[in-house]
Write a sequence for this structure.
């Protein structure tokens, strides 16, 4: 039986009170409750405070370049589609530097869970505005306030027909744990955008600010249709006095791996490579 303790306990470099601690706890709980042992899990990340999360877990990990958490994730999933693959990233790392990879992996629909620590700020590089920062927010760089329209990642994902779109809150670990479990169990590309307060640089979107606004959708709308794309679009526009949490949209469809006939005989990592054929393949690219 898998337990949270199997994923280890490590000293971190996060600021005291950071929302990342709650996300780490939710990830551990989700994996343990699903019975996924550390050797069955791969977590990839890019650069940022969020991307340190795999370092604080006992499992397989790949820490890459800024904005590049998804390329190694999809590569590993194709090589061994029996792995549970999670990509962990931040709003700057994913929606800024990694925006291109985010868009095209939604299109491809690989069976990967993407967890985005959305603190609406660049936390590692000392607090400049990110793609999701609100208009008017003042930072050390945007001293007169942010004037760019903030990106709504959930709207973007739904517009691209992402197969699983959800939002959690770092201050509600039980709910976030359940969201991550649903995302992992979903076959396809799953987005879990997590509202994660940055206690050092974002003095606007604090734990108390969110706590006064967030609500669990499933508790207020039991008849919500997860397959209703237009309703999902409408729901993710709510922001301000009230902010919904939960699963907004689900569309079951073939995954990227389903289109690859070579995977039907089993994981690629289990296949024996023929050196002659590999050489012939490489020669075609010379």
């Amino acid at each position: 039986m898998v337990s949270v303790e199997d994923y280890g306990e490590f000293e971190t470099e996060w600021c005291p009170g950071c929302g990342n601690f709650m996300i780490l706890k939710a990830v551990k709980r989700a994996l343990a409750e699903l019975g996924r042992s550390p050797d069955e899990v791969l977590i990839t990340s890019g650069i940022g405070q969020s991307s340190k999360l795999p370092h604080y877990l006992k499992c397989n990990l790949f820490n890459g370049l800024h904005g590049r958490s998804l390329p190694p994730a999809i590569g590993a999933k194709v090589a061994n589609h029996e792995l549970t693959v999670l990509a962990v990233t931040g709003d700057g790392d994913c929606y800024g530097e990694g925006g291109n990879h985010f868009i095209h992996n939604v299109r491809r629909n690989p069976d990967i869970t993407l967890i985005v620590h959305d603190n609406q700020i660049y936390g590692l590089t000392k607090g400049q505005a990110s793609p999701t920062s609100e208009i008017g927010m003042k930072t050390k760089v945007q001293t007169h306030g942010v004037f760019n329209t903030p990106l709504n990642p959930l709207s973007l994902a739904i517009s691209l027909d992402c197969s699983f779109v959800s939002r959690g809150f770092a201050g509600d670990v039980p709910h976030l744990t359940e969201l991550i479990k649903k995302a992992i169990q979903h076959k396809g590309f799953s987005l879990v955008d997590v509202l994660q307060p940055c206690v050092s640089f974002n003095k606007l979107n604090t734990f108390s600010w969110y706590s006064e606004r967030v609500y669990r959708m499933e508790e207020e709308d039991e008849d919500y249709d997860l397959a209703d794309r237009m309703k999902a679009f409408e729901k993710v526009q709510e922001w301000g006095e009230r902010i919904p949490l939960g699963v907004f949209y689900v569309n079951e469809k073939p995954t990227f791996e389903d289109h690859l006939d070579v995977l039907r005989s089993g994981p690629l990592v289990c296949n024996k490579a023929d050196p002659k054929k590999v050489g012939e393949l490489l020669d075609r690219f010379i």
Observations:
- Residues 20-33 form the longest helix (14 residues).
- The first strand starts at residue 41 and ends at 45.
- The mean pLDDT is 94.
- The two ends are 50 Å apart (CA to CA).
